[in-house]
Amino acid sequence: MNIYECIKSSFFNVFSNKMRTFLTMLGIIIGIASVIIIVAIGNGSQAAMEEEFESFGTGTLQVSLVGSRDIETRDLLTMDDYYMLKELDGIEYISPTYSGSNAYVKLLDPTETNNANITGATGDYKYINNDTVLYGRYISDNDVEMRNNVCVIQDTTALKVFGYCNEDVIGQKIKIKSWKGTTKLTVVGITENTDSSSSTYSDEYPENIVMPITTCMKVFTGSNLGGISIVLTDASQSEVMQENIISALEDFHGNEDKYYIMDTTDMVESINSILSYVTLFISFVAAISLLVGGIGVMNIMMVTVTERTREIGIRKAIGAKNRDIRFQFIIEAIILTGMGGLSGLIIGYLGSLIVGNIVGIAPVMSVTAIVGAVGISMLIGIIFGVAPANKAALLDPIEALRFE
Amino acid sequence: MALLTLDNICKKYNQGELAVMAIKNINLTIEKGEFVSIMGTSGSGKSTMMNILGCLDRPTSGHYFIEDEDVAQFNENRLAEIRNKKIGFVFQSFNLLPKLSSVENVELPMVYAGVSRKQRRERAIEALSKVGLEKRIHHKPNELSGGQRQRVAIARALVNDPSILMADEPTGNLDTKSTYEVMGIFQQLNDEGVTVVMVTHEPDVAQFTKRIVVFKDGDLISDKPVENRTLREGIVS
Predict the structure, then answer these.
(1) For residues A163 and A112, is the Cβ–Cβ distance under 8 A?
(2) Which of A20, A32, B132, B192 pairs as cysteine with B237 (C-beta 3.0–4.6 A)?
(3) Alpha-carbon distance A369 to A374, whole Å?
(4) Which residues pair with A118 in a beta bridge?
(5) What is the pLDDT of residue A55?
(6) Which ipTM was obtained for this model?
(7) Residues A221 and A91 grouped into a single domain
(8) Which chain B residues are closer than 8 Å to A14 by Cβ?
(9) B77, closest residue in chain A (CA to CA)
């Protein structure tokens, strides 16, 4: 019996009981679809994360206080630390940072506001954050010194606050509401929003606003910094420089083990490794559902073999060899799981678009995942088809013909 | 050389600790062109005989020659080949595949023989015409009468041009009219040179054949030519 005949007859058998075929495939469909969705979303968030940090600039050092309870007032980072560190050798760009949330920006419709991510910084932050100025200028050291009420906003914010984004926005004022009241800031520059995730244009997407660190401290709190961001002249010196910076700070404050430096390169790596562990774990759970689906296929194939005992007897009586029968049932199992895998792939693809839309991550489909999903499902067909096929192949023709 | 030669064939079944001899030291020769009935009560060993003759089962000891090949100890694959090429089966309960049409059922042995698609269809239609079913080739078994189903089964048995046609109680599920029809076809085929071996317990049916072999308790107790043979009255479709 040739392969073509065998596949034809297997398709015929698989489709002669559509409901059962569908229910059997369901396990595989769900398994493959969930693997596809998880991998696509996992890859998508990894890509989004990488892009986020790329815009922030890898090789950036973030100096901050360690998060422990025995922090005293004298340990806190201030502008003096910034001025002190600025004098160190090997530092290309340095900016104190203060991040304020719990602030709102008034939008075009004066009755509406939106969340604002406020960052207080100095002129160097432009290079640290890899910002591109579209119109106007970035905040300057003079702004910092004079505590000017100025700010730099993103093009997306300009559209939402003023309804347009061009030179005319420069010089206009935006209103920021915080727990300290409303502050008016003059827009001196517009930067490009490079965040490519789908949520950029949604209403919930926060407005990113950069203002002089000194102004920011005036608007929000007293004299303490959130941290200090540093870009090194030579990124390969990161470890030495981290030690230098920490010891300089400890000398300056007269304390020990209070400061902590995070290298964003390490951060990207550690976040990626966490993400891939999470993806791996969820994939493992999905793989279990695939295994259960495979067992379902085996179960149905076993039932099918029993039901078709007489047919097997007839086929053997008219000359089918054991291998013809075995082959036929394995092909049927592969058709079941293969079709399940393909359907799962399509559903998984659509599903990842939907899930990606909901969680705001652009799913990333990889050829490996697609080929792997279909390949694995067919492999499941072979693995779980062998036992039923062998059972069928080894039936005694006389017994099989007697079967009612 | 005889078509089939049984030389001292025994078949032993193990039922628990008890060994049962289903047939004992059978010697039998069937020549080309014969039409033989195997008769006997149930438990006489006639079904075992049929299974061994049809290569569905192997004897415990002895030699079984089909033409010049001793198939007694052939492995399963070689037996399957013999069944496919040299033996045509007709069963009491027809044993057609219910989801396939007449012509597809008849094509099945040729699928396993590796005959090309075009040739299969031609030969299947030819075989169906031979049994008077050329107008029913696309009917499913459940759209056919019992007699018609058995004729499809006969067409299937013939289609690979076997050396011998084995029929196991072929009229057991048929009414009198259909029985005459089917036996008539057997006679006609036999007249055309096909060797037929048929198991039956009905003496009336055995009267259509040329030679009756009787089994009792595993022994061959009688082997006689048929006198006053019933002859067919022409094929009724």
Answers:
(1) no
(2) B132
(3) 9
(4) A100, A209
(5) 60
(6) 0.92
(7) yes
(8) none
(9) A321
